[in-house]
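Question:
Now give any protein.
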Amino acid sequence: MSCIRFNTPAQRQAMREHRPAMLTAEEAAALHPSPPVTESKIRRLRLLAGDPNPKIRESVASSYNAPDDVFEALARDKDAGVRGCVAKNEATPCDILRMLAEDPSETVRGWVAVNYFVPEDVMARLANDRSKTVRSLVKWKSQLAEVG
């Protein structure tokens, strides 16, 4: 007995007729709205930002809802993974991205380079970074901008 299933033309047609409609990102977001950001959520983010587990701090650093002072504290975290999450977060303030562009970790500076919202002056500085990898990421990102 074979486990391969063959659908008849009628079955294939029925599946085509009943397939779900493709939604745009905006339509999907409208169907599944995020809960509002409350003071309670902000308090939890502040509390978790001080957790001893760096993975917990990374999750806070990845949040679009973290307050600026939390981003700033996490940008100074001893763990490069936490700082990297701050560097790649599109909600991170520009001044903090400027600070992270000087980070001792090549990985963190690389995340700054690929952040879509990094200021031009930071990109110019990273174009001359001591790391070939960071310079390559800056070049790659500039080529994407030329194509787009």
